[in-house]
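Homework-ish question, so no full write-ups if that breaks the rules, but can someone show me the predicted structure for this set?
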Amino acid sequence: MRGAIRAVSVAAVVTRAVQAQAQRGQIDKSDGSPVTIADFAAQAVLIRELSRVDPGLRVAGEESSGYLREPVHEGELRGALDAARRVWPGVSQEEFLATIDRGATRLEGEDCPESFWTIDPIDGTKGFIRGHQYSICVALIQRGRPVVAALGCPNLSEDFGRAFTDPDPRGVILAATGDGPTVGLSCAEPTAEAGPSGPLTRVERVDRMERGGPSGRALVFCESFEGSHSDQHATGRVIRLMEAQGRAIGPPARIDSQCKYAIVARGQADVFLRRSRDPARRDWIWDHAPGWLVAARAGVTVTDSYGREVDFARGRLLEANQGMLAAAGALHGEVLAELRKLT
Ligand code: AMP
Ligand code: MG
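A: Not a homework solution, just the prediction itself:
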C-alpha cells in the first residue's frame, strides 16, 4: 500500500504543476473525449513508481501513447515529457512513451493476468480542466478483487467546510488494503525517497443514519458534476421519494471523479449515486476499483445502481454492472428501494 500511496503522491506533483498552467494542458481530441498532457505524464509516472515495488507488474491504464506518437502532436509530446521530467529527470522520449504503453495489458478472457494494477492517472479530466476536483487512482486487482488501492484527491480538503470548487493546496490521499481499515493522509509533496511524510490516520465513517430524521441533520447525496455522465434527474427523483417518507435531504453535492467515494468513505456525504443515462454504457474498471476499495473498507456498501455486486473480473469494462450506488448501512437498501421505483 505504501508503494501505491507513493506513486499517487509523485504523480500529484505532475498534475498540480499542469493544473496551475493557464491552459491546463488541454488537448482537444477529435473524438471529443477530453485529455490533457498531464493524463499522459501521470500515467508514465504512476507506472514507473509502481514498478519500483512490483518490477514485473502488469497494468491496465486509461491512456496509450498513440496520440503523442503522431508527428503533428509533437508539441503535446514535448509538454507531456516536460511535465513527467519534473519527477523523472532525464527520462528519454522513447522510455516515456514505452512506459505509458505498459498500461495496455489486455484483460479479456484467458489473456487476463491473475494480478494486475489498474490506473486512472486523472479521473475527472473535465473537473481537472475546470480547475475543480479530480483524482489519481491506483488499484491492485487479484483474482478479480481489488486488494490494494490508493486514491489521490489533490484538491480535496481535509476541512469538510471548504467548497469542492475551491481547490485545497494540500489535498488528501485515501488508501486501503483488502484486509485493513481505510487510511488517509495529506497529499503534500513527497520527500525524496521516503514517499509522503506524515502519519496515516484511520478514516472512519461517522455514522450519519441519524441525519435526515427528526433530530438529525439533512442527508447528503453526491453525484457527477457533469450531467452527461450520470442521470442527475434520477438522483432528484430518488431524493424527492425519500423526502416524501420524512427524510431531510440537502441539495446533492456535485463533484468530479472518484473523490465521491472518498467523501462517502469519510462520512462527508451519505450516498454516492451514479445512474447511467445510457443503459448500454459500461464503465471502465479504473473508474471504480480504487474508490470501491477505499469506500468498502471504510464500511460503505458499494453495488451497482441495481444492487448487484461489482464484478471486476470481466475485462477492462464492468460488463456485468450499470451505474453505481455507495451508501452505509441501512441507507443503501433504502436508496435502492426508491431507485427500483424509477422507470
Ligand atoms: P464523473 O467524475 O462522475 O463525471 O465521472 C468521470 C468518468 O465518467 C470518466 O472517467 C469517464 O470514464 C466517464 N464518462 C465519460 N463520458 C461518460 C458518459 N457519457 N456517461 C457515463 N460516464 C462517462
Ligand atoms: Mg476516469
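Now go work out the reasoning yourself. Hint: The radius of gyration is 19 Å.
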